[in-house]
Amino acid sequence: MKSKHLMLSLGMLLVAFSASAQKQLEMNLWQNGAPNSNGDSTDTAKVYVYLPSDKAATGRAVVICPGGGYAGLAMDHEGKDWAPFFNNMGIAAIVLKYRMPRGHVEVPVSDAEAAIKLVRANASSWNIKSDDIGIMGSSAGGHLASTIATHSSGDAKPDFQILFYPVITMAPGYTHQGSHDNLLGKNARKKDEKLYSNDLQVTRVTPRAWIALSDDDRVVIPSNGVNYYLELYRHDIPGSLHVYPSGGHGWGIHTSFRYHTQMLLELESWLRSF
Fold it and tell me: Residue 45 and residue 63: Cα distance in Å, rounded?
């Protein structure tokens, strides 16, 4: 997407960072109107930027895409609530409120690509390394994150991906039907279902991935994340797959998830491994 659409007002950024204590930003993603439409003019895209202290910053950043079946967004436990975890590791967290597709797949995709580009455009101001920017997503947000990881290029391509109980395939019988219908439409074309089945789009330049899910997930069946890992392995892409015995779907960073502490330790260990 053209950078002129991005909310990159230099004056606004200078004001926001004039106070040394300023470590959070809320920004509209698009300045002159978004490049694609879902038919709802009130549905706008935003980013919530959480930066670690200058002393703690490692230069790494992650753009976070909450889930919600491409019908809504779990902005807290799959989004904003993750900021302290990443900031404590010296990682900037950029939570994306993306627009709903309403059958127009290019809408959330353009938002996620713009968010990655926004972080790279502000890498110097935000104390971020432009070659260490990842994307994370949960459930349908995991589908969006893996779409960016497998489809996007140039400044929109992430350097790593983190996926929680992700929707990966659009194939009938294996996909999450609600996500499928909201993204592609109920009468989706077979070629679009194949194109956005992201396990089929893995190549040798797909970024490394960390994947977590529960064996008893009845909402998004585990084969989504497992098949994605197998394709990464087949293409010699570093991957780390974690299948927990229970937990169902949608646990995010909730402490009620039985394997919450183990999950955080495993994710932290992976992030420190490269």
Answer: 13
